[in-house]
Design goal:
The chain has 134 residues and is an alpha/beta fold. The chain has 6 helices and 5 strands. Helices cover 49% and strands 18% of the residues. The relative contact order is 0.18. Bound molecules: manganese (II) ion (MN).
Length: 134
């Protein structure tokens, strides 16, 4: 089980992601803008952040830059999530320092693959074990 911070300003999208992640055994922390996400990351110490690029108060790129300035959060995996994917956006996000990139609507196998890649499969295999044991 892993602690996943969802930073997303759309409540419906947050809820969908929460249900999906909780069904796989993860603990979900929610933030509704970039500033909230920074505070939550410092306070809650998630294992990974799913960071919406388009958010009020502080957008995803600025939030990432602030996370990377914090020595204790510098190496935390941060996956960009965006609804407005254009050609070249993935490269832009990766060169800005995001560890992964997902487009909305979320393609579930891609999300799971990103989590496995960054969490070494730990969260996923434990979640499977829990499901099997229940
Ligand atoms: Mn948004």
């Amino acid at each position: 089980m892993s602690r996943v911070l969802i930073a997303e300003d759309n409540a419906v999208n947050r809820e969908l992601l929460r249900e999906l992640l909780e069904s796989r055994g993860h603990i979900v922390i929610e933030a509704c803008n970039g500033r909230d996400a920074l505070e939550s990351a410092r306070r809650e110490r998630p294992d990974i952040i799913l960071l919406d690029l388009g958010m009020p108060v502080m957008d995803g790129f600025t939030t990432l830059a602030n996370l990377r300035k914090d020595a204790s959060l510098k190496s935390l995996p941060v996956v960009a999530v965006t609804a407005y994917a254009m050609q070249g956006d993935r490269e832009k996000a990766l060169s800005a320092g995001f560890d992964g990139y997902l487009t909305k609507p979320i393609h579930v196998p891609s999300l799971i693959a990103e989590l496995e890649r960054h969490l070494n499969g730990q969260g996923v295999s434990k979640a499977r074990g829990q499901t099997a044991g229940q």
